[in-house]
């Protein structure tokens, strides 16, 4: 029996080596991701809050 209860995709964009950084899509603060990344980027604070919000409860 598998213990994989969460089916949430946890892929993340690559971390940037330096500026310019992409803006967080929620609060507009700089993220750890490159500005050239096309997709949803979250700052560490919003990333943490989103993980709490979407975490599986057991």
Mind telling me the C-alpha Rg?
A: 14 Å
Q: Give the count of helical stretches.
A: 1
Question: Reading side by side through the largest sheet, how are the strands ordered?
Answer: 1-2
What sort of overall outline do the alpha carbons produce when their principal axes are compared? Answer: elongated
The overall average pLDDT, rounded, is 80
Topology as a string of helices (H) and strands (E) = EEH
* Sheet having the most strands: 2 strands, antiparallel
Amount of beta strand: 5-15%
Which structural class do you get from the secondary structure elements?
Answer: alpha+beta
The helical percent reads: 10-25%
- Stretches where pLDDT is under 50 for at least 5 consecutive residues are none
Terminal CA distance = 16 Å
Tell how many strands the DSSP assignment holds.
2
Structural features, described:
It is a single chain. The chain is 19% helix and 14% strand. It contains one helix and two strands, in the order E-E-H. It has a two-stranded antiparallel ribbon. The radius of gyration is 14 Å and the shape is elongated.
């Amino acid at each position: 029996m598998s213990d994989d209860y969460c089916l949430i995709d946890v892929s993340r964009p690559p971390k940037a080596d330096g500026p310019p950084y992409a803006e967080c899509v929620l609060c507009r603060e700089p993220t750890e991701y490159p500005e050239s990344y096309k997709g949803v980027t979250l700052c560490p604070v919003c990333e943490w809050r989103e993980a709490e919000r979407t975490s599986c409860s057991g």
